[in-house]
Write a structure and sequence with these properties.
Layout (H helix, E strand, L loop, with lengths): L8 H10 L4 E7 L6 H15 L5 E7 L6 H7 L7 E6 L6 H15 L3 E4 L10 H13 L3 E7 L6 H15 L11 E4 H8 L7 H5 L1 H11 L4 E8 L7 H4 L1 H17 L1 H5 L9 E3 L13 H22 L2 H11 L10 H17 L4 H22 L5 H17 L1 H16 L5
């Protein structure tokens, strides 16, 4: 079914009653009854502390929660000069549709700035509101991406894939392309609302990276804002992040296809102006099970090695085979191999027109191998020291970009010659 709007009738009527606003802060949510009140509290305090002279609306975009998320949100008392909307969005399930409803509301209210924060945050403070909104309101930026102080084992998909690929492909050093907490100007909100992605898997599973990539490729003015420590519902990579890994990778590769002509012309990368929190903090530790990740990789090797041998270059497959023979206490999965493996899988994804989900399943054990080695490398490091490893890896992704272009073009030539799987 094609939905022409993500706003239900009662939500549209509520927006009409409000008429206009300066600031809209959205909170997409689904079954977050334990954290939603704290997030709303910090948003209402932040708007009161920093923007008391502005007309502000807090928009809770719910995905049909089966717990008491909406009830908690409705009952929470915000400042009397602020407005609150609690809405169940229309359209396919997922954060993308929640944000679509937010973008539509921003356009109808003709706001100056639209911010959004995740609903599972435990470390959000009132100052996050200022850190996100000020670059748009005071500096003329159109897209504000977050920077967090995160534990070295939180954000493994970002650290080992998303940051690196986004930086190498599109030339902007956006540290958290899928951070979840952003701010945009009204023209960007209008642009997003008008796009044709809302009934696709990208909207369901990859909305954050789609927003970031679209902002870069459309030439919007982009900056970052440091929000301090991020504490949220953290998951162990080996136990919980397999499905998310496949969803994010699928969105990344879809965007690579859409913006191929853009990224092929980008050389090197540039840092972005960064505002917000200043200081150094050590976040809460995140527990990871290294042995489990190595076991998952080795199990994957037993199942998939014939397919891996067929998909990857000889040098990459040799590195995979070598790693599969190592014991946990000596486990190594080099950055150089990981970069080429990821580039080769991106090119293969582009080459294949069927069985793409299967291809991403084949990739998951290799992700576990890379994360396991990153954990081993950084075991004695602070989160700040581990950040240097992430940067070294990002530089290598940039240095190997020609390798990506070569393998990408070669696999397309093979497809055209009828050699694809």
């Amino acid at each position: 079914m094609n939905y022409d709007t993500a706003l239900r009738g009662y939500t549209s009527k509520r927006i009409e009653e409000i008429e206009s606003a300066d600031i809209l802060v959205g909170i997409p949510c689904y079954n977050n009854e334990k954290t939603i009140d704290h997030v709303i509290q910090m948003v209402t305090h932040g708007l009161n502390k920093h923007y008391q002279g502005c007309r502000s609306v807090i928009f809770i975009a719910d995905g049909g929660s089966t717990d008491d998320t909406r009830e908690v949100a409705k009952e929470f008392e915000i400042k009397p000069w602020q407005e609150k909307i609690v809405s169940i969005y229309r359209g396919p399930a997922g954060k993308g549709t929640a944000l679509r409803s937010l973008f539509e509301a921003a356009e109808r209210l003709n706001v100056k700035v639209c911010g959004m924060v995740d609903s599972d945050l435990r470390s959000i403070t009132a100052d996050w509101v200022k850190y996100l909104l000020d670059p748009v309101l005071e500096k003329g930026y159109q897209f504000v991406a977050p920077v967090y102080i995160r534990h070295k084992y939180d954000g493994t998909i970002t650290n080992n894939i998303v940051y690196n690929l986004t930086r190498a492909l599109y030339g902007k050093r956006i540290r958290q392309p899928i951070g979840g907490d952003f701010a945009i100007s009204k023209d960007v909100a209008k642009f997003y609302a008008e796009q044709d992605v809302w009934i696709t898997d990208v909207a369901r599973f990859g909305i954050d990276i789609w927003m970031t990539t679209s902002a870069i490729t459309q030439g919007f003015r982009i900056c970052q804002s440091n929000l301090g420590v991020k504490i949220h519902d953290v998951k162990d990579p080996g136990q919980h992040l397999g499905p998310m890994f496949r969803q994010v990778l699928s969105a990344l590769f879809f965007l690579m296809e859409r913006y191929e002509q853009h990224w092929k012309g980008v050389k090197e990368s540039e840092p972005l102006e960064t505002f917000g929190f200043e200081g150094i903090l050590e976040p809460e530790p995140v527990k990871v099970n290294v042995d489990l990740m190595i076991d998952l990789f080795k199990t994957g090797y037993k199942q998939f090695s014939p397919l891996w041998k067929n998909i990857f270059s000889d040098s990459c497959f040799e590195e995979i085979k070598k790693a599969a023979r190592l014991k946990s206490n000596h486990f190594v999965f080099p950055i150089e191999a990981w970069v080429k493996i990821l580039y080769e899988i991106a090119a293969t994804f582009h080459q294949w027109s069927v069985n793409r989900t299967k291809l991403l399943d084949l990739m998951t054990p290799l992700y576990f191998a890379r994360v396991a080695y990153f954990v081993r490398q950084s075991w004695e490091m602070s989160s700040l020291e581990a950040e240097k490893l992430v940067e070294e890896q990002a530089v290598m992704f940039e240095e190997q970009k020609d390798y990506l272009i070569n393998v990408w073009d070669r696999k397309i030539a093979e497809k055209e010659n009828g050699e694809n799987p």
